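Good morning,

Attaching, inline, the backbone tokens for the sequence recovery test we're adding to the shared suite. The designed sequence is right after.
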């Protein structure tokens, strides 16, 4: 792969080469944080939720961004929207978020990704809203005590599609980071599935991955210097066409230099220690 990359760079075809090789098998998805913080706080969380101070999504900003993206036909690019965090059910406006997303993206698959802890306490109004806005409730199963059968029956009662997003008993992976940016952005780009599919819509900007979007939590907690450089994101209001998003996704970004190779790990609760991420 290294030789191919060097050839592409030397022959000024790196952009077209990336665009072809990095086309994801299952399409791109758009991830939206309803809350940066979480009520579970997993060790080495890729979204840095254990380090985040409580912050909820700005509804006006969300509507403005989605209105603009819908006008350029973004549904033709993303196969799904993931409403997550953090833990999205911490957000007091979760139902309104669902309404806004469905209004501007009427045909796209919308999935609410939750750890499930707050699902048993959700009201009838919540479940009816999930049905009305055609939201799939997707629960990530961690090794914690939850009554899955009761949750599943509750979803079925209101005609809400309920699914399991992942299994917390399987082997997890972490990607150690370094703010010295010592790694090859090209090599990391081609090897990283996360960078391939999960754009982040955050504070009126579009980011390629969680690291580039939420690195501020690391910087504030540990005094690191992960930067959000202009090429790592696009201001939504500056996006003129769907092609612009596709071309931007087809290139390695400067933030790709921060990531070391992935390491296997077992799931655990975070102690908010620096070596969980650095």
């Amino acid at each position: 792969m290294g030789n191919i990359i060097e050839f592409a760079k030397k022959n000024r075809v790196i952009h077209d080469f990336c665009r072809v090789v990095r086309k994801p098998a299952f399409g791109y998805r758009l991830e939206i944080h309803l809350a940066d913080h979480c009520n579970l706080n997993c060790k080495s969380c890729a979204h840095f939720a254990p380090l985040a101070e409580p912050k909820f999504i700005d509804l006006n900003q969300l509507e403005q961004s989605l209105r603009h993206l819908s006008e350029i036909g973004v549904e033709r690019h993303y196969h799904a929207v993931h409403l997550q965090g953090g833990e999205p059910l911490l957000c007091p406006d979760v139902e309104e978020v669902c309404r806004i997303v469905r209004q501007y993206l009427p045909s796209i698959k919308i999935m609410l990704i939750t750890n499930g802890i707050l699902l048993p306490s959700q009201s009838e109004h919540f479940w009816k809203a999930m049905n009305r806005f055609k939201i799939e409730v997707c629960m990530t199963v961690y090794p914690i005590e939850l009554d899955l059968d009761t949750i599943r029956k509750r979803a079925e009662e209101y005609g809400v599609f309920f699914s399991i997003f992942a299994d917390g008993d399987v082997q997890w992976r972490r990607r150690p980071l370094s703010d010295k940016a010592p790694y090859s952005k090209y090599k990391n780009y081609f090897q990283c599935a996360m960078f391939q599919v999960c754009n982040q819509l955050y504070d009126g900007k579009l980011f390629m991955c969680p690291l580039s979007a939420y690195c501020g939590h690391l910087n504030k907690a540990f005094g690191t210097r992960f930067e959000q450089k202009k090429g790592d994101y696009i201001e939504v209001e500056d996006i003129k066409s769907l092609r612009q998003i596709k071309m931007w996704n087809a290139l390695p970004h400067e933030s790709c230099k921060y990531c070391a190779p992935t390491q296997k790990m077992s799931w655990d609760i975070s102690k908010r220690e620096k070596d969980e991420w650095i």
